[in-house]
Structure formats: structure tokens, C-alpha cells
Amino acid sequence: MSAEIGRQLREARQAQGLTLEQAAAETFIRPQYLQALEEGRFDALPSPVQVRGFMRNYAAFLHLDAGALLAALDHSPSPSSDEPPPPESQTPPAPELDIPELGVTLRQRREMLGISLDEVARHTHIPRHYLEALENGELGRLPSSVQGSGMLKNYAAFLDLDPEPLLLRFAEALQERLQQRLGRPPGKVTQQEEVPRQPGALQRIFSREVLLSGTLIVLLISLLVWGGAQVLDRQAASQPSPSPPSIADVLLPSPTVTLAPTPTITIPSPLDIAAEAAAAAPAETAPPEATELPVGAVQTQIITHQRAFLRVLVDGEEVFNGRVVPGSVYAFAGDESVEILTGNAAALEVLYNGQNLGLLGSQGEVVNTIYTLSGVLTPTPTNTPTPTETPRFSPTPSPTPSSTPTP
Description:
The chain is α+β, with helices and mostly antiparallel strands. The chain has helices at 2-15, 20-27, 31-38, 48-61, 66-75, 79-82, 100-113, 117-124, 128-136, 145-158, 163-182, 188-194, 201-205, 208-238, 247-250, 270-280; strands spanning 298-304, 309-314, 317-323, 329-334, 337-342, 348-352, 355-359, 367-372, 376-377.
């Protein structure tokens, strides 16, 4: 009868000029399933329910009477009835996976909450018979160990239980069943796992606690050293360093005394004085060391910027004659006058009675300046008179008179 049903399906398809691939594309049924239907091999399909569903869909697509085909399918003998029963397996049955204490824990928790199995099945989407197997501790009735652990975890979470101890007990039961299948004593592996491993000598010396303590000690010492360095730096920065006195303090003018003007003094030519000083070529002279400025009506301070020759006359007396040191300050005071002669005017800056007069002149210029109570004087060089050579006259010979003879 199965071959007759398949023949009708195949003839109807061929009459319409369709291939199995075209029919599969239209009916969304795999080609191998359609071929199994046409050949009457209904046992090649996954289940009898799928056989009836695929046949109804395929018959409707081929414009055949699906009801008649299904009725003929129901009257056809089952292919499995003709086959001899399979021989009994010689292997011993697998040991049952029963954990009664696990099921008691689940059932007591559910009864305490007042929830029925139907309500649990509706909320957890776990079939009732699987819930009953869990509460009876018959975990061998579950589809697989993976699905069983998932159902157990979901059921425990629904009952607000900690699933970890239950899953651990379930894993231990699976391990025991595996050992029973292999013919080993169930407690052999667990005894090996329970034996603590003795650490070696090196591990005892460099243990986790020792390394952690050493790291903390090193960090503490580093922190103390860094803190001490910071404190020393702040103390050194807080101590004021002595600063040299400013030029303004050195050049602070002393009170001036007004005196009666004196007549102008005739000064020799500065060119002659500079020439004589250059010929002498004295060594550099340091500024006079004095704790306070000299007292006098005429106050002068000389700030040196370059090496230069300097000659100073105070009230007509020579008080300095030599080369100055750059960066020094020379202070002189007189009652009537202070005369300054230098061979490089750009090297000296003069302050006269507290007033900065600036540089004396340009580079290499010879300057002779007199500072008096009435002001600053520049002497005019006098020309040295030179004798005029007296012309020498040679005598002119005069003619000698000759005697004239008389007649």
C-alpha cells in the first residue's frame, strides 16, 4: 500500500512536468523527503506526524485527494511490524541517576510557597513530568544531562533557591554514574582530588603572602624616602639666600653742601695728559674699598662697563690713576671739584650729585671733564706756541768802485 501511495504522487508530479526540486521550492519540503514519499519509504521521515503533514501538503500541491491518501496510509501495515524485534542488548543497563535529597529540597520549597506543579510548569515552561522527575530525584528520566542541569537551574531560580549547591550535587551524581559504567570504584577519583598537594620548598619560600608583604614593604620605604626628600627641598627653599647690595644703594647720593663759586682753573691739554698716561701703562687698579660714600660738596660715582684708563683729581690732588675693572663702582667727593680724565669715554658712566649723566662719550674718545659746584666744565685745550724760525740773510756783494782816469 505504501508503494501505491508513492506511485500516485510520482505520476501526478510527472504529469504536470515538475521536478523534485521545483516541487520542493513550491511546497517548502526538502527534496529527499519528497523522494521518500514517492518511493513509499515513510520510515525515512523524522516522525509519523511529519509523514502525514508532508503528504497532505504534497497532495494538495499536486491536486490529489489528500483524505483518500491519508486513509490508505492509515490502513497500510506498519513497516516496523514485519521486522523481527531487535535482540536484547547484552550490555548491563546503565545505573539509575537518583538523588532523593535533591528532589526533597525542591518539593519542600515549592510546598512552602504554596505553588502547584501546573503553575510552575506554566511560568518556567518546563513540562510537568520533568518537574515531577526533579522532585522525585529521578534525574535519569530527563532528556540529557545538559538539559537536566538547565531545568534544575531554572526550577531552583524560580523557587528562589541557590542553584549552585544543587548543580554541584547533580554533577557529583553524574560523575558517580560514569565511574559505575567504567567499572571503577566511585570514590577513587574523589579521594585523589581530595588529597592536598604539598607545595615545594621554593614555593614555600616565595609564597603569595611573602611576595605581597615584600611588595608592601618596598612601597612603604619608597614613600618614606620620597616624603623626606620633599621636606628637605621645602626647607632649603624656605631659607632666604643673601643677596648682594644693589647699585642704587651704593650710588645713593650724600647731601650736597652749597659753597661759593671758585674761579676757573687753567688745565693743561688733555691730549698731553692722555699721552703721558698711556706711556706710563699702569696696571689695572681695583676701586677703593670704603664702607660708606666719601663726604664732599661735589659727589661723583663712576660705573665702569669696559677696561679703560682713568685718572681722577679731587680738589686738584690726584686720588686715582690706573685701569678700571669692568662692573665696578668708583665714588669720589670733593669740596670744590672732581676732575675725570679717561682714554675711552664709552667705558664710563657718571652720576653727578645723584643725577645720571650717562656715558662720557663714544668708543675710544679721550675725555677730560671737571665737575664743580656750579656745573660741569670741559677745559679747552691750549695750543703750545712754537718759535718762528728767523730767516738768515746772506750779504749781497756790492760793486767795487773803479777810478776814472782824468783827461
